[in-house]
Write a structure and sequence with these properties.
- By secondary structure, the chain is mainly β.
- It is built from 1 helix and 11 strands.
- Helix content is 3%, strand content 47%.
Length: 150
């Protein structure tokens, strides 16, 4: 089977209100991701413009209930984003989280940093094939396609 049948992909809101977060210095927390039925979760954060002097980072937090209250940082999960990392991706991967609900906590300080979006990949499903999230517009799969009109 191919990757698409083995990984549930979804787009989440970095601040709980929109799929991109405009330039700013306000700390934000992402949507909470339910990892039930999967062994791991990978976050891909897309960065936009980051102003020189910005102090930006993010970390992974977890909880045993679907609630922002009680979220706890995961040891070693903090990623620092340089002010020269405009238009780059940051990836963090948590295999076998100890609690079911996971989110990202973004720390943006000093100067503006833009979050262009966050993609989540839930992998090693207990049931195959996975059903893609409603945020996925299409998910085509091809095996040894012939050349010709696309």
């Amino acid at each position: 089977m191919n990757l698409t049948q083995n990984v549930k992909t979804k787009r989440i809101q970095p601040d709980g209100s929109g799929y991109t977060v405009a330039a700013g210095t306000t700390d934000v927390n992402s949507d909470i991701v339910d990892t039930a039925g999967f062994e791991g979760v990978r976050f891909i954060v897309a960065w936009g413009a980051i102003v020189s002097g910005a102090v930006t980072s993010f970390k992974v937090q977890q909880n045993d209930v679907n609630s922002a209250t009680g979220m706890a940082d995961l040891t070693g999960s903090n990623i620092t984003v340089a002010d020269t990392d405009d238009n780059k991706l940051s990836i963090t991967d948590i295999f076998k989280p100890r609690e079911r609900y996971i989110r990202l906590a973004f720390d943006r300080g000093t100067q503006n940093a833009t979050i262009d979006g966050v993609i989540v990949e839930l992998y090693e499903p207990r049931t195959l094939p996975v059903t893609q999230d409603t945020t996925v517009q299409s998910a085509e799969q091809w095996v040894s396609p012939a050349e010709g009109t696309a």
